Each structure stands twice: as structure tokens, then as C-alpha cells.
Amino acid sequence: MANPQDPYGQQPYQQPPQPYQQPYGAPPPQQPPTTSQWGPSSIGLEANVAAGLGYLIPIIGLIFFFIEKSNRFVRFHGAQSIMLVIAYFVVFVIQIVVGIIGAVADNAVNGTGLIFTLLGCLVGLLYFAVFAFQIWGIIAGFTGRYVKFPIVGDIAERLAGGPAAPAV
Asked: d(Cα 15, Cα 1) in Å, to the nearest integer?
């Protein structure tokens, strides 16, 4: 609605609201403590940061697995990260075996090279699958989600001392 005394329909000028300013010398306002749903960690990091770092740098996952005493969430993700490294090693051994058998078989019987080339492609897909699980673990760890991967998740859960439960 226009002001009846203003022929142009403009509103009177008002000061914009000022942000709250603390008096000089006053202590800063207290921030609420940030706590993870997984509870405190004995290594001094938030549980989700420790879990995500374990996947990002697997040697840190190994260290966190052995150092962490109280937080099963961090221990679980550290153990699952270790299991992914073992999976990388297993795929590497499969690649070596397929390569050696493929070379020997190709020299012995002509025409087997195609079969071992396809097996080599399957090994590449296995590498990609393990890498995808590692990326999934990084995201799950940093966001604080408890994600149990096929096969390695059950082993990691046993190593961690059981499933992690959110802190109350």
C-alpha cells in the first residue's frame, strides 16, 4: 500500500537491521561442541574424520585400527580399509597368475591368447570394483555412515569387536 502523503508511492527510508555486535572486551560467544553420533575417539579426532582418513590413506587405517581402543566405528572402518588393501593384493596376484598362464598357454597352444586377454579384462574390472569400494568407503567414512561391504565387511566387523552402535 502506498503512503497517502507520498505522491510517488515510495516507502519511507528505513535503516537495515544491524548485525549483533559484541561490546569491546567481551568474551566470544560459546560454540556448541561438535560431537559425532559415534561418540568420542581415543585418538583425538572426530570418528567420521578418522574413518574417512583410513580409506583415503590405508596405512592410517591400519594405525587407527591398532591405536583406537574405545570407538568401534573407527576400528571397523580401519579394519575394512585393511581388507580392501588385501583385496587389491589378491587381485594383483590373480593378474600375475593370469599373465603367466596366458603366456605359457599361448606359446603351447595357438589361439588361447584371446581367452587370457578376456581374463585380463576381468582382472581390470576387479581392480575397478575394489577402487569403487574404496571411494565408497571414503565417502561413508567422512559422512559418518556405517557401510558394510560384501565379504570384507563381515571380517572387518569381527576384527572390530562387533557392529558399531551410535553413542547415546
From this structure: 20
